[in-house]
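Quick review question:
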């Protein structure tokens, strides 16, 4: 399980401690800028061959986290280690090497491929910039990678618009793998695809992980998708971790009211989870510029007590996962009692 306080282990592909990102937001001429805390105090580790899925509603900070882990943005505070190396402490040459070890796959395979380049050019691009391989060897590697992601090597001279959405996402995955990364950061990689194509891409990602030992940071708002691909799950709300741990523990016995609400709003997942009732989240998502005092979820939580409105809960180990909820023990007890009654 991903426990932030776990001592640094050399085999972790990525480790984060207290990772935070804040943005200064201008509020017009006569008001001082405000701070938007997009991500606060996240901690996790991902080992080779493992997938950490990050789930949460729109605006909870998933892409911000992805950009930090992919080294596209430096965190405001916190510690990020890749392959046992502290990122901010690394020299320029080391940072360049680290960048090769982390690659991103984006949601929209239509926008992420240059329409003016052939597939061969797109795949050879990372090799041209980062290696001194002969162009013929680059082309051979690109053709090999194309076949590895399930496309024919004859596609090398075609352009992105000649492919379907699923095929383009295969090409985007192939491009991400050209430099043999250790970690793939996938930000909603199947959200723009039809359900049947989604399954094919998820299977491809699982095959690649099994054969190449890749670590995945997989971002999704779709718990059905997460259930297929994840080993560990981190549930975020307004930039903060609500619940985090082993996928099976969280899917079979969600304990945080927000996780329960997410699972309870997906009918296919709700079936088979006797303790999880249909939940419709009440109220609006609060503005990240003015989050509630106390627990950030308190304004929409059906179990909130006065304490929840005043005191921010700490993320603590409880029943085999981490959870930030003052009421966790009470809710776990009543869920256990309800299960005993229904048995
Ligand atoms: N560069 C930026 N400057 C200012 N605010 C930002 C910036 N990037 C993100 N934010 C804000 O940070 C918060 C988190 O945004 P983020 O894009 O990470 O959310 P998300 O979970 O990926 O959402 P979605 O599911 O819609 O993609 C949002 O309130 C967003 O407006
Ligand atoms: Mg996003």
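Suggested answer, residue by residue:
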């Amino acid at each position: 399980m991903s426990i932030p306080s776990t001592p640094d282990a050399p085999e972790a592909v990525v480790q984060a401690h207290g990772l935070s990102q804040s943005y200064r937001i201008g509020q017009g001429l006569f008001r001082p800028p405000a701070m938007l805390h997009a991500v606060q105090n996240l901690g996790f580790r991902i080992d080779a061959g493992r997938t950490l899925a990050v789930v949460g509603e729109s605006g909870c900070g998933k892409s911000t986290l992805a950009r930090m882990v992919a080294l596209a943005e430096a965190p405001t505070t916190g510690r990020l280690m890749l392959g046992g190396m502290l990122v901010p402490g690394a020299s320029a040459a080391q940072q360049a090497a680290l960048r090769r070890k982390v690659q991103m796959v984006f949601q929209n395979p239509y926008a992420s491929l240059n329409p003016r380049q052939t597939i061969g050019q797109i795949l050879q691009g990372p090799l041209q910039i980062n290696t001194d391989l002969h162009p013929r060897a680059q082309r051979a590697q690109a053709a090999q990678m194309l076949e590895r992601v399930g496309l024919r090597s004859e596609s090398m001279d075609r352009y992105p618009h000649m492919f379907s959405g699923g095929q383009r996402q295969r090409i985007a995955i192939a491009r991400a793998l050209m430099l043999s990364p250790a970690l793939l950061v996938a930000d909603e990689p199947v959200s723009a695809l039809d359900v049947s194509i989604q399954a094919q891409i998820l299977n491809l990602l699982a095959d690649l992980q099994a054969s190449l030992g890749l670590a995945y940071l997989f971002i999704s708002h779709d718990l059905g998708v997460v259930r297929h691909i994840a080993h560990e799950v981190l549930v975020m709300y307004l930039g903060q971790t609500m619940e985090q741990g082993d996928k099976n523990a969280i899917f079979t016995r969600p304990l945080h009211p927000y996780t329960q609400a997410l699972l309870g709003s997906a009918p296919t997942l709700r079936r088979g989870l006797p303790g999880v009732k249909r939940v419709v989240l009440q109220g609006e998502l609060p503005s990240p510029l003015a989050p509630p005092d106390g627990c950030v979820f308190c304004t929409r939580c059906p179990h909130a007590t006065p304490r929840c409105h005043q005191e921010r809960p700490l993320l603590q180990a409880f029943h085999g996962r981490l959870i930030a909820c003052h009421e966790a023990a009470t809710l776990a007890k009543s869920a256990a009692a309800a299960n005993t009654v229904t048995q």
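Why it works: The pocket of adenosine-5'-triphosphate (ligand 1) is lined by residues 23, 25, 36, 38, 58-64, 221, 288 (CB under 6 Å). The domain at 12-116+159-342 is CATH 3.40.50.300 (Rossmann fold).
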